[in-house]
Specification:
The protein is α+β, with helices and mostly antiparallel strands. It folds into three domains: about 70 residues, SH3 type barrels (Roll), CATH 2.30.30; about 50 residues, no CATH class; about 140 residues, Kinesin motor domain (Kinesin, 3-Layer(aba) Sandwich). It contains eight helices and ten strands. The chain is elongated and about 85 Å long. One of its GO terms (molecular function) is microfilament motor activity. This is Myosin-2.
């Protein structure tokens, strides 16, 4: 018995519809359908499309292949223009790899490096300074619900902070990504947010607004020390973390930071004795040498 295909799905691929096709240079390329043919007798489906580059793309598949792949063999559909650059990927009508990449590209072109994907924040490293972390912007996110402001690290940090004081439960923020994605810098800004976003809740007699406590200063000061001993220059990242870090920030009942625990793990010990070509050892060795006066370096 031949399994029947849902023709309503194929009718989505009508003339004028935009779709994606794989591309060797840019991963995915958009194209508009110029003609389509559904042949029920031959059990085949054909599309003739014109890519944005002007190239004509002919697509042919069989009903059996469509059924076998559960429609995955069909070209992914583009989202309507009104959804381009939307700040939450889960709001896309068609959620698949090319749609995600296209939306992130649009937002990056608008200098929006942060995008939500549900409860997850996707961050794109611009490899340049951006004016997104000033004290004014930091304070603007304090006390605001996620969704009221543009996607941002500060919104994620505020969400965790509010969850802690509202539900009296421990909160966890996981910063993950490949080398050079911006994990180290992101973690720094999250710590800074916790240290200074809710200064108005402090006792002004002991902690004037704008002045962080000694404990908070000590937490922020751990970053350069840990980076000196655990970061190194690689071919992909001049300040690549070669270890994992687990940081616990403790708050007291008055919502003030009162302590922290830092655990490190999986240090790349082999880098101490061998560095790949065009890479360096840990920063600390170069910093020690740089601190030696020029006239004493021969010693």
């Amino acid at each position: 018995m031949t399994q029947e295909i849902d023709l309503e799905i194929l009718k989505s691929y009508s003339k004028g519809t935009n779709v994606y096709f794989p591309d060797d240079e840019v991963a995915w390329i958009q194209a508009v359908i110029e003609s389509e043919n559904i042949d029920s007798e031959a059990r085949s489906f054909k599309l003739s499309c014109k890519a944005v580059s002007g190239r004509i793309i002919e697509f042919t598949t069989s009903f059996d292949e469509i059924l076998k792949s559960k429609n995955d063999v069909l070209p992914p559909l583009c989202n309507p223009p009104i959804l381009e650059g939307i700040d939450d990927l889960t709001s896309l009508s068609h959620l698949h790899e090319p749609a995600v990449l296209h939306n992130l590209k649009i937002r990056y072109g608008m200098r929006n490096i942060y995008t939500y994907s549900g409860i997850v924040l996707v961050a794109m490293n611009p490899f340049s300074r951006v004016q997104l972390y000033s004290q004014d912007i930091l304070e603007a996110y304090a006390g605001r619900m996620r969704g009221e402001m543009e996607p941002h690290l500060f919104a994620i940090a505020e969400d965790a902070y509010q969850g802690m004081i509202r539900d009296y439960k421990n909160q966890t923020i996981i910063v993950s990504g490949e080398s050079g994605a911006g994990k180290t810098v992101s973690a720094k800004y999250i710590i800074r947010y916790f240290a200074s976003a809710h200064e108005d809740s402090r006792d002004s007699s002991t902690n004037p607004q704008g002045v962080i406590s000694q404990v908070e200063e000590m937490i922020l000061a751990t970053n350069p020390v840990l980076e000196s001993f655990g970061n190194a220059k690689t071919t992909r990242n001049d300040n690549s973390s070669r270890f994992g870090k687990y940081l616990e920030i403790e708050f007291n009942k008055k919502r003030h930071i009162c302590g922290a625990n830092i655990k490190t793990y999986l240090l790349e010990r082999s880098r101490l004795v061998y560095q790949p070509p065009n890479e360096r050892n840990y920063h600390i060795f170069y910093q020690l040498i740089a601190a030696i006066p020029q006239d004493k370096r021969e010693i």
